[in-house]
Each structure stands twice: as structure tokens, then as C-alpha cells.
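for the writeup, i need someone to sanity check this before i put it in the appendix. the sequnce is what the collaborator sent (i think, or maybe the updated version? ugh). structure was predicted straight from it, no edits. if anything looks off just tell me and ill rerun, i have time this weekend
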Amino acid sequence: MKNSIRSFFHHSDMFRRTQWRLTATYSGILIAFLAIFIAVVSFLIHTVMTNDQERRIRTLAEQEGQTIENMLEEQSFIGWSSDQNVIFLSEDQLFFYVVDTRGRLMMGDEINKGLRPLLLSTLQPWTPEKNELRYVDIHIPHHQHELKRFRANELKILTAARPVIVDRQLIGILYVGMDATSMFRLLKWSTFILLSLGVLFIAVAIAFSYFMSKRALVPIQDAYNRQRQFVADASHELRTPLSVIYSSVEALKMDASLTSDPFSQKTIERLGDETKRMTKLINNLLTLARTDDAKIQIEKKPFDLRTCAERTLQSLQELANKKNIMLQFHASEQIEFVGDEDKCTQLLYILLDNAIKYTPEGGTVSLSLAQHVIKQRKVVTMSVSDTGIGIAPEHLPHIFDRFYRADKARTRQIGGHGLGLSIAKWIVEAHKGNIHVESEVGKGTTFTITFPNERA
């Protein structure tokens, strides 16, 4: 039961990965548009509000500056007393001050007298060369109860400064300020609300994308399941006629009247080879179809892996001799492994058969088995190396895909359908192992499999 569940999740992983990729794509597009929208709206709100405030204070500073300069020109009087105030503050103005060139207050007013020391200490170091704007932070001490009407410990004040010039002589600096604390608080809250709505809409976008990607995959998954079922049924149905054909070919080989004719003998041998090839293809297809449907169970039992490897090498010795390929074997005297003996034999056969096929005549194919302990866990390592044609780097990520062949023309000549390594990978993963490949074109390929070796 556990193996069936594990196999189900394993074979549905392709659709789950595809679904999550589609979800990421859809939600990424929606989130990108949403982020752009929030950024544009925030920028527009900030720009409109700050530009309006800055335009108003520039106008206010220019009007009051002209008024003060006109008064000083008419009276020809520079030493103005701070209590001789005739300038009226507008309804949204926080203060105005005129400070002479020596840093002394000439005239001024504010909406709260307690602000004057704080404002002057902050403004006097600022000597603008022309009309300038600046946001000034004023910290209100806790003990100044008369300033609690502002309901904030810090005031954000938008200040405009311009020189006061009479008869081309610099008389002083005019500072005009407006309270921008509420505006910044509003900007802060609007940004927070937009971000909160953005997070909410992102969650909705991800959920919507997940739902849409799931619906989009339904017909594809149904078609895939029907195709998989067709492959399983067709493979099963084709095994019987292929067995009959193979038996008939073997019977024809026993007829002396046919084998005495060179043409008939060659034709019969070709029929036998093609029947074997088709039988192998059908068996591989049926194996993969059963693994997809979780119908193949792995039966783990202790067995001698060295003996299993020796039997596999003996079965492939004739194929290696035809190409004058040397088979080398390196292993401990006995390696007790807990796994499925039939599947491990099939794994060895696939890897060694591929190594022999893709190794030129006179080459070498090596099989190594070893057991050791890694992080207090028993591990068995299996390595199959050859001196064959190798695999190009761009093909390495795909060699375990079904029906994938790096060089299709060469593969047709050698024989193969691109299913063996897919089955090999399934066998390794069913034993909770890892398979790794290293290859260099023209020098050879090495497959390394690592299995955990613990008793059930």
C-alpha cells in the first residue's frame, strides 16, 4: 500500500510541477500588473499632494516677501522690533519669520508661541541663496504641554525660504512654514492601505491562478491517462502475437530445407532479430505503463549483489565478444543487499547493455560494486563505466526522458528506443537511491548509482 501511494505521487509529480509552473506564471503576470498599478497610484497620490502643498507655500512665501520688502522700502526702516507684527498668518500657515544677516529675529509670528525656540534653532543654520523648499522635522519635548494640541511628538513642516532684498541690499531671510504632518500621515496610511490591498489581491491572484491552471490541465491529464492506458493495453495484447511469431521463427530455423538456402536462412535470422527487438520494446513499454499505474511492486529481500552482477555479465559476454570489448568487474567477495533482485538484475542489464552498444570495438566496459558507511548509514555504490562515444553536455539532462535519443541516426543503427534509462531511473528511485551520470564526448560515460542498504 505504501509503495502504491508513493508511486502515485511520484508519477503525478509531472502534472503537479506543471500546475505549479502555470500557477507561478499566471500569478506572476497578475502580481506584476498589480505592483505596477500600486506603484503608479502611490506615486500619483504622493506627487499630487506634495506638489499642491509646495505650490501653495511658494505662492505664500512670494506674497509675504513682496509685502515685507514694500513695507521696508516705504518706511526706510531696517531695525524692526519682533513685537511690531502687522503680517497676518493665513489659515494653513504655521509660522513666518524674518531673520537679519546677523541671525537676529526682525519680525515674525506663529500659531503657537511655544514653537518659536524650536523653529528658530532649526531654521537659523539654513541660509538659502535663492528661493528654496525644505521639509523640517521638529521634535516636541514631553514637558511642553502647550504644544500637545498638535497630537504628535514630531512635526513635519514644509518650509520655504527666500532672501529679503531692499534697494539691492540683503536685509535678511524670510522663512514661511506649513504643517505637513497630516499630509505625510495620510500618505503613510494610503500606502499602507494600498499595500494591504495588494497583499490581499496577490493571495486572490495566486488562488485564481492555481484554480485556472488546474482546470487547464484537466483535459491534458485525461488525454495522458487515456494514452497511458492505451499503451498498457496495446503492449499487453501485442505480447501474445509476438510470442507466436517468435516461436514460428524458431520452428523455421529447425527446418533443414529452409536453412540450407542462404537467402532463406538470412531472412529467418532477420525475422528473429526483429522479433526480439519488438518483444524487448513491448516489454519496456509494458513495464513503464505498469510503473505509471503503480502496478509493479518492489519486493525487497536480502540477496548477494555480487552474484547477481556476475550472472548479468555472463549473459552479456557473447555480445561483448562480438565487438571485442573487454568486460571488467571489481567488487568485494560478497555484498549482501536488501532490494528486489529481479529489478536490480534488470538495472544492471540495461546499463551494461547500453555501455556495450555505445562502445566501439576493442573498448572496455567496467562494473564496480562497493559497500561502505556514510553518516552512520550503510550504502552500496554501483558504477558502470565505458570507453565509448560519450554524451554531449546539452543531452545529459534529458537522457532519462522517455524515447529521448541524443543521436537518432546512430541509435537506429545500434538499436534502441530510448526507454532503458527511464526504466533504470525508476528502479533506482523505487529503491530510494540516486543515479548520476558523467560523460565526455569521445572518452566515455560513467553511471554511478548509490543505494541505501538497510534491512527492512
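The longest helix spans residues 181-253. The first strand starts at residue 95 and ends at 100.
thx in advance!!
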